[in-house]
Specification:
CATH architecture of the largest domain: Up-down Bundle
Largest sheet: none
CATH class of the largest domain: Mainly Alpha
Number of helices: 19
Radius of gyration: 33 Å
Amino acid sequence: MARCAVDGGCPSDYIAIVFAAVCLALLIFRWILPYVMYKIPLPKGSRFWIPVIQVFASLNLLLSIVISVSFFKFKRQKWRSCYIWAVWVEGPLGFGLLLSSRITQTFQLYYIFVKRRLPPIKTHIFLPLILLPWISGAAFINVKKPLNYRCHMGPRWIIPIMTLHILYVATLIVFTWAVRHIEFRFDELRDLWKGIIVSAFSIGVWVSAYITNEIHEEILGLQVASRFLLLVTASILVLTFFSTSSSQPLLSQISLRKREALEYDSMGHALGIPDSGLLLQREPETVIDPNEPLEKLLLNKRFRRSFMAFADSCLAGENVHFYDEVHELGKLPLDDPVRRIYMARHIIDNYITPGATMEVNISHRCRQEILTTSDLADPNLFNNALNELIQLIKMNLAKDFWSSMFFLKLKEETSMRSNGRDLEQMASWNLSPRLSSVQGTDDPFNQEQFSKGSGHDSTHDSDH
């Protein structure tokens, strides 16, 4: 016991390591599940990199605790440099990076839903800026070298280090409090409060563990118990702290408990937009006239779906998809800014942001008007972009569509549905004798039934 308490390798140490490995595996599985199981394309920009950074920081945090707190003995001690693992990897690249990425997400939510505009500072600039105190603190400790051979530091160092931890949790609380009144649709607020509670609890455990290790180094059993609790708490922290609801709302609906198909196939469906993505069977059939303006034809959902399939076959479907998404946005009432902002943000991330998955070809001036808007809920936000793309579609796709198999198939389906409805309407007519206003021999549809009925009645009367 005395040997493993100092050098590591106690049974409780291996149990904690296995627990940490399981939590990390669950975290990684939760992160890659949508992309592997549902073949979802990888997003671009901060929507992809912030979750990646969270996973990277979680791995660093757990690995640094295992190596720096002597969970097992290394044969080559150079791999156990206290200033690499206990200072840099555990601080700026671990807990500091984890908290900073979550603060970045909350900062984005604050600007998007409270200020109703995109954040003025790009993520790749904002994240390093708020990480600077951690980097400065690690550099200062690296110069002063207060750690002993067991990677422990004196009590006078614990207070400023834990103050830095508490400061970042407090910053997260401030931003979360600022967005508490927003009626989020994808559990963003719940995930934020959960992360705050777990991180605050973890800091309390870590403070206790550090104090225990420093003040009671001679109590070996307490040393073993404190590092066991330290790693287990950090493992729970990284698993519960991870969230994609802020950066990828639709993907956040997939969890380890939901192995069925995606609950929502589009943002419009997720936001409860009426008839989003649906082709209703009772939708009125209209004749598709090529001489009609394209703007009017695109309002017809069946035509829009057929035209979208044709555009996708030409590898130029992003413009029609953009039109469809903006059309769905127009169904949302103006007095519902939260849902309008969700939809606008979704459209910007997928179609407007440079390098987006389905970036549309619009002018730089028009793109900047959208990206620098002061109101994401503005009903005219995408009007100029739509006008440009409609003109582009008219010059390219529209001319080829009328001679394509997609249009011929659409005409045939429209004709068949129209004929089928006529037959269905005739079949639904009730021609029973009770409801017919024509009686007896004056009713040409009732003569046979009437004669059969009369014969039956006469036979019945003769029996009497």
